[in-house]
Design brief:
It is built from four helices and five strands. The chain is α+β, with helices and mostly antiparallel strands. Strands 1-2-3-4-5 form a five-stranded antiparallel β-sheet, covered by helices on one side. It is elongated. The mean pLDDT is 79.
Length: 176
Amino acid sequence: MAEETNPPEQQSEQVEAAAEPKAQDAADTPKAKPPAKEKPPAAEKAKKPKAPAVEDKPFTEFMQQDFLPALQTAAAKEGAKDMNLKFVNEAVPIVGASATEACWQVRGSWGRDNYQFNIYFPDADIQGKKGFSFSTNGAKPSILESFMIDERKVSLDLMVLYAVQRLNAEKLLARN
């Protein structure tokens, strides 16, 4: 294969012709704004990191500092102003449950202890298994029900919503 070469005179004409459009393009375009000053990399690094979600706190800390006060407030709005909430690690008070196995639970009572409920956390994790029981007139609960089993990501607001919703389903908070 033979390469085609142009004589030096033609090569210089081609170079000049190629250079002309660039000069014309620059003259035809409006003056460009000077480039914006870039932020120094230190300014980007100085941004405050996003605060971790309350749900990322250790389990017991989250339950005591966030969940119990939020549930207390929500229950008061629904009419249970005298609700007493406790967070304990005790045996499940269901008839037939093992008295030796303890798990974390939120115990709530109100109306001179006429109404009680428990939310159980056997895995000590809000994302893990959860159960619910209730009773009235000082009796021990007899049924342990699943609680929040369909939620992929559990948040404080969802936990409070489901607890209040569950109590309303039993007509324990708002009477229909």
